[in-house]
UniProtKB/TrEMBL annotation:
Residues 7-57 form the RNA polymerase sigma factor 70 region 4 type domain. It holds the Pfam family Sigma70_r4_2. GO terms for molecular function: DNA binding; sigma factor activity. It comes from freshwater metagenome. This is Unannotated protein. InterPro entries: RNA_pol_sigma70_r4_t2 (IPR013249), RNA_pol_sigma_r3/r4-like (IPR013324), WH-like_DNA-bd_sf (IPR036388).
């Protein structure tokens, strides 16, 4: 039986851009607008990554 994945392991498994956006949003508490400005992308693109990343993290962590 395998041990559950840690948050660090799950984050490491994500694509770099997704990991960056999720880290900035959840750990650095940046708003989607701030992240979008930093990356020079539309805010809806950041919102989409946050939404899909949150779902993926929940799935990996069994939440």
């Amino acid at each position: 039986m395998s041990e559950p994945a840690t948050l660090a392991e799950v984050l490491e498994s994500l694509p770099v851009e997704e990991r960056f956006i999720l880290t900035m949003h959840y750990l650095r508490q940046m708003s989607p607008d701030q992240i979008a400005q930093l990356l020079k992308v539309p805010e809806h693109a950041v919102d989409s990554v946050i939404s899909s990343g949150k779902a993926r993290l929940s799935q990996f962590l069994g939440l």
